[in-house]
Design brief:
One of its GO terms (cellular component) is plasma membrane. The chain has 593 residues and is an alpha+beta fold. It folds into three domains: 189 residues, no CATH class; 245 residues, no CATH class; 140 residues, no CATH class. It contains 22 helices and seven strands. A hairpin with a 3-residue loop joins strand 2 and strand 3. Helix 2 packs antiparallel against helix 19 and helix 4 packs across helix 10. It is elongated and about 110 Å long. The two termini are 33 Å apart.
């Protein structure tokens, strides 16, 4: 009988359960995506050049576990809040507490296990889809990566099922020890914020000091090594929570004292935020951390992606050099519409390559002179035969010939001296396109046809360097972009779940406002402002965390981690705005229908 009544309550609040279930599915899916990388040691070792990457991922697992604990704790409280009234009614009509406790425990476990299994399947599909998109669009080279990884699934199941077992026991105790009358009116009890100046001042001071220590640890990671990551993890998480807990409560109370609160529905909006103030501070702290992780990961991933062609361009002025090109190869070169194409004739011995000096005087050979290796500042230098003979960078010419000739010494001869050499004459064709990245497929095909290999050690030029650097940084680039997308999805899941989970209970409040003559435009404006506050606050904190956190990557990035930072920030802002628009659209449909 109780089971039938419980199912009736479930059908009545199916929208709330849909929000809960979808949120838990996304949470477990994202956790699986992270663990698919963190637990795959073979992938991490073969695709990154950082020796301590495994330990870094372990710290990341700890942070994500903390986020998961808060998320599941909130999801469980939401589940409990939905059922308190129903089970209070069951008690009022004579149902035994032990039977009700058993029912809520089974319900909690069923929701958790089902969401976890579905989440792992969704996570596997997302891992396969996202990884394939990144590999194809960015031209990455990865080894030992698998979308389905059993250890990651096992870790996800153990964590989530274990947490829901504990949550079920907590729900059982909470319901059986709470009087029926209190259960009936549990959702009508607000959590009003109260200013405690000394306590909040202490939280602000401790929070700022904690975050400052975390920023210092990230800036000095080269000295502190793993300890720096651990210190930053603990202090920044703690400091973020303390600041939100102190400042957000103070902000809500303080704003009500200004005339601003008396305009339109501003007072109503502030009261709506104040009503769930304590839950908001916990969730917004988590969202701020996820915002920083997502934006930081995407910024670093794009940073690695942008520095690969820069490193390739700093190696040589030409994309590739081909000896004795065929008609087909010349057609392939022409199809790429190169900016520069030169052909030089030469005769070679085992140790020396002889060139016609007149050709270099007519078609100067460009070399690359480095100005600042750290920032990859370089200057192209035009060289005639005499200048190139004396240049320390003339190895860039023989490098383009590839094979055994790459190590020979270049010598430039007059037409008379060159004609006296008995060796057979050969041709070296060098060319430069507008972008190695753009023409990487055509260059790969050309290299395979001419050199019968795609091994970059067998030929020289920008494309060969691009392949070498890409193989070194592909893993880091992929990890950054992949985790950035995963954390962005987790951020959206947390924030949307937090906002939408309270939409059903807010519905009657907006209905009352509608009945007293409030216009639709005013109601929409109040909703937009309320949700905007919940998006903006963690966004500001997250951006500050990222700006300081990028200091960590100075030791592994050739270019500055802040180079071109505006692009990932702009892309992320667009996605964040999209999430905001989606959230307010869904929220409006629920509360204003």
């Amino acid at each position: 009988m109780l089971t039938k009544l419980a199912m009736t309550g479930f059908k009545h609040r199916w929208r709330d359960y849909l929000v809960l279930f979808s949120g838990l599915i996304m949470s477990s899916a994202i956790f699986y995506m992270f663990e698919a990388l963190a637990t795959n040691n073979a992938f991490l070792k073969q695709n990154t050049s950082i020796g301590m990457v495994g330990f870094i991922f372990q710290f990341g697992s700890v942070l994500l576990t903390i986020i998961t604990l808060v998320y599941i704790g909130y999801a469980n409280s939401f589940l409990l809040s939905m059922r308190k009234r129903d089970y209070g009614l069951f008690m009022m009509v004579g149902a035994r507490k032990s039977k009700i406790g058993q029912l809520i425990w089974l319900e909690t476990l069923l929701v958790g296990v089902t969401a976890t299994i579905v989440g792992i399947l969704v996570g596997t599909a997302l891992t396969a889809g996202v990884s394939q998109i990144l590999i194809n669009s960015l031209g990455l080279t990865l080894h030992r990566f698998a979308a389905w990884y059993a250890p990651a699934a096992l870790v996800t199941i153990l964590l989530y099922v274990g947490l829901f077992l504990i949550a079920g026991v907590f729900n059982l105790i909470a319901l059986t020890r709470t009087p029926a009358l209190k259960l009936l009116h549990s959702n009508d009890q607000p959590n009003r914020p109260q200013l405690k100046p000394m306590r909040q001042l202490l939280e602000v001071i401790v929070g700022l000091i904690s975050i400052a220590i975390g920023y210092w640890a990230m800036a000095n990671l080269e000295t502190l090594v793993l300890a720096g990551i651990g210190i930053a993890l603990v202090t920044i998480v703690l400091g973020t929570y303390l600041l939100f807990n102190a400042i957000f409560v103070w902000l809500m109370v303080a704003l009500k004292r200004f005339k601003f609160a008396q305009r339109g529905l501003n007072g109503f909006t502030l009261s709506q935020l104040s009503f769930r103030i304590r839950n908001y501070t916990k969730m917004l702290s988590i969202v701020a951390m996820l915002f920083a992780l997502a934006l930081g990961a995407i910024t670093v991933g794009m940073g690695f992606h942008s520095q690969i062609p820069l490193m390739a361009n700093a190696n040589n002025a030409y994309d590739m050099g081909l000896v004795n090109t065929t008609k087909s190869e010349r057609q392939q070169i022409a199809a790429m519409k190169p900016k520069t194409t030169h052909t030089y004739h030469f005769k070679a011995t085992k140790k020396v390559t002889y060139y016609r000096a007149a050709e270099f005087n007519q078609q100067p050979f460009t070399t690359i002179k480095m100005q600042n290796k750290h920032q990859l500042d370089y200057q192209p230098v035009q060289n005639n035969a005499a200048k190139l003979q004396k240049s320390f960078d003339n190895y860039q010419l023989t490098q383009l010939q590839g094979g055994t000739m790459a190590a020979t010494t270049p010598v430039f001869l007059s037409e008379t001296a060159y004609a006296k050499l008995a060796q057979p004459e050969q041709r070296l064709t060098v060319f430069t396109t507008n972008s190695v990245l753009e023409h990487r497929s055509a260059l790969a095909k050309l290299a395979k046809e001419h050199f019968h290999t795609t091994n970059p050690e067998q030929y020289g030029g920008r494309y060969a360097m691009y392949q070498l650097v890409n193989s070194m940084y592909s893993g880091l680039e992929f990890i950054g972009m992949f985790l950035g997308i995963a954390f962005l999805a987790m951020l959206a899941s947390c924030l949307m779940f937090k906002i939408l989970s309270g939409a059903a209970t807010d519905q009657h409040r907006y209905a009352m406002l509608d009945k007293v003559g409030t216009t639709r435009r005013q109601l929409t404006g109040a909703i937009n402002k309320k949700i905007a506050v919940l998006f903006i606050l963690p966004g500001i904190v997250g951006i500050v965390h990222v700006l300081f956190g990028l200091q960590m990557f100075k030791i592994i990035m050739v270019t500055s981690p802040y180079t071109g930072i505006w692009l990932p920030f702009l892309i992320f802002a667009g996605l964040y705005l999209l999430y905001y628009l989606m959230t307010i659209t869904i929220y409006r449909r629920i509360v204003l229908e």
